[in-house]
Amino acid sequence: MSSPTPQPPAAFKRYCKTLRLHDDAQLIEAYKQVHAPAAVWPEIGQGMREVGILAMEIYLSGNQAFMIMDTVPDFDHDHAMQVLATKRHQAEWEAFVAACQQTEASATAAEKWRVLDRIYQLGA
User: Fold this and answer.
1) How do residues 9-47 score in pLDDT, each as one tens digit?
2) How many other C-beta atoms are found inside a 10 Å radius of the C-beta of residue 85?
């Protein structure tokens, strides 16, 4: 079972995104390994924090990846993704993980991950 999820601050924006990995057990395992806590390049997390991403989780079901991304309240998704693409080592990271993803090696994170529309919410 997963460890408890850290709670985001009281005021934040949440984005849910999805992408497909290649339907290949070795590539899926490689994708999991490069996203292990100590494996993600430090500059990648730093760049995300610099553009206003507070927390991020990625889940897998088969070859379908699902991301939950919590951001600062005034986060402008499109602008932040453009800025993120210019951060140190971001293009190299995207090309590196693209080997596991159903995408082009030159695609940015914004081009790979599709934002999902929320259609239901219980409570609040």
Assistant:
1) 678 999 999 999 999 999 999 999 999 989 999 999 999
2) 16
pTM, entire model: 0.85
What length does the chain have? 124
Architecture in CATH of 13-115: 2-Layer Sandwich (3.30)
What is the DSSP-derived secondary structure letter of residue 55? Answer: E
β-partners of residue 70 are 14, 55
Written as six digits, the tokens of 117 are: 């529309």
The residue among 33, 15, 20, 27 whose CA lies nearest residue 84 is 15
- Cα(1)–Cα(23) distance, integer angstroms: 24
- For the chain, the structural domain boundaries read 13-115
